[in-house]
Amino acid sequence: MKKLIKFLKPYTVAVVAVIVFVFAQSISELYLPTLMSDIVDIGIVNGDIKYIIKIGGIMLIVAAGGTIFTILASFLSSRVAAGFGRDLRNQVFSKVESFSIEEFEKIGTSSLITRTTNDITQIQQVVFMILRMMISAPLMCIGGIIMAVSRDAELSLVIVIVIPIIASLIFLIAKKGVPLFKVMQTKIDKLNLILREELTGIRVIRAFNRSEHEKERFNKANLDLTKTASKAFKIMVSLMPLMMLLLNLTTISIIWFGGLRIDSGRMQVGDLMAFIQYVMQIMFSLFMLSMMFVMIPRASVSTNRINQVLEMETNIKDPKQPKKNTGKKGLVEFKNVSFSYPGAERPVLNNLSFCAQSGKVTAIIGGTGSGKSTVINLIPRFYDIDSGSILINGIDIREMSQKELRSKIGFVPQKAVLFSGTIADNIRYGKENATVDEIQHAVDIAQATDFIINMKDGFDYQISQGGTNISGGQKQRLSIARALVRKPEIYLFDDSFSALDFKTDAKLRIALKKEIKDSTVIIVAQRVSTIMDADQILVLDEGEIVGIGKHKELLNTCKVYREIVSSQLSEEELA
User: CB–CB of 41/272 below 8 Å?
Assistant: First the structure.
């Protein structure tokens, strides 16, 4: 909770102003019944028109002042709540950006989306309600009790009986509602997860004719959430009619007993009218508090979920004193590296050692699950290794800042990821201040010029979310161009040529060879033809290097490599 409260510090002046305005509003509302009582008991009873006009004028001024204070308090409260929500969303997003892949997988993408949107909205609404109601309700309740007792102490016994009943009612309903709201937020996460899977996997769903199955799966999760929400809201909503019933019964009791007191001459009509008004104010203040108890349980669940994100410690941290480059450029070394994914029974990589030098191409090949992509993902420090060390330019990557480390790398993932925006925007993602000439040069090398110039708007063509309006090969080439425009020390290609035809693949590799002659290149590939010309080829099998060398050497010395090659190339091509 302390982490959330700190977001209100910039709005301290506004919060104080809201408190002042709410206090002034409450005073004006408490003063109005007294004025009305005086008009009835003095002005109307005595037929004093001047007194009625005088006190009536004061009532109008007090009412107008209360209205102005109410508007100002509502305006400032909404500004504070909206600003609080904005700052909290920024903080959560910044925190999530610092997470390693492990933390992402621990919470889940769908849950992070729900927490950043739905949960923060719940908290934002409660902040507004607290500023408007949590301050005014106690003031009105306490002030109303004092004023009611001052009018008639004996009749105030009705209030003494009613308040404990209302308090018990609020407590019991809140106690039953809180656990349901906690379950409800978890079920929103599940619904969000299913919806996200269905939207991103729509092609697969249609290809396998599983639309009806997915509808049933979504309806089941939706109905599950609806049942829980319905149960929770039924409990909470029952509070309001019960409160209104108590309010009406209390009013009837006051009129009954008040009438008896007027009949006996122990109370004035104006005092009874004022007393009823004060009791109404007390009851409505308790009614407002009951509304808070409807919203606070759900917001408390959301608060815990947001705190879980803000307080989560990331496993991958920058060192306190990062080491600087020793003068080498692009040298990548693996020394006895072992790694296993969180929760895995066995390591993915075992005692891996190799060196990738600047100006040379290092290729990695192996069977499915041999650990090829894992090697690539360890270099930018998406995960931390279990043992050994990974050095770049002679410095352990754990002793470098993540920003500096990743600034040296041009990464092309196995699955091409593009963002909504123009083609030029997506390429500039690699280098923010890239010139038109630099973009054009990168596109030429990536063999993407032909399809770009044939598009309606060329480089200004709008890419849809996820790049769904272009082909897989086009996405891959733009992804490669994005890495090339950066001109980094180290290029990492994680099976980045698989979506390209052989002709485009060959052209791209020829152009690439000239461009990256001063950089270190590490390529993960399935195609032997892509890596035949590499300066060194690493052959992985079950997380271990079973062969290292050039193509011809490995054909003679490495059985695993020979099997891979023979499965892809004919006897003539092998010869």
Answer: no
